[in-house]
Amino acid sequence: MKRFLGFIFVCTLLAVPAFAAKNSQTVTIPDAVQVGSTVLPAGDYKVSWTASGATAQVTLAKKGITPVTVSAQVVEQKNSHSGVSINTEGGKGVLKTILLSNVNLVF
Predict the structure, then answer these.
(1) Cα atoms in the 13 Å half-sphere on the side-chain side of 69
(2) How far apart are alpha carbons 6 and 90 in whole angstroms?
């Protein structure tokens, strides 16, 4: 019985990352940008989101900095590459859209 429970536990641990990966991808931000009220330095970020539609919470995480969570709209769309759309407002780069393989995150 203990072996069976151990097997179930291990299978569950291995399955969790597969489900989490659906709403999590990596993107490179080439320059410092403002997201909400926070300025993020350039670098590679793990982007994860909670739901689809207009009320999603998006978290941008990079090693060495505090993760930033902001509201965004999730638009289902296939993209051939990932990237970001940045507008310049008041001399500063402001993150507007993150393009990922299967969604666009619009801020």
Answers:
(1) 6
(2) 57
What is the maximum alpha-carbon separation in the chain?
65
SS3 8: helix
Domain positions in the chain are: 24-106
Q: Are 60 and 67 in contact (CB under 8 A)?
A: yes
Residue 56 φ/ψ region, left for φ over 0, alpha for ψ in the -120 to 50 degree band, beta for the rest: beta
Beta strands in 1-107, from DSSP E residues, in sequence order: 24-29, 33-35, 38-40, 43-49, 53-61, 68-76, 83-89, 92-99, 103-106
Q: pTM (2 decimals)?
A: 0.77
Q: Is 61 left (phi over 0), alpha (psi -120 to 50) or beta?
A: beta
- Note the pLDDT tens digit of each residue in 17-42: 444 447 999 999 999 999 999 999 99
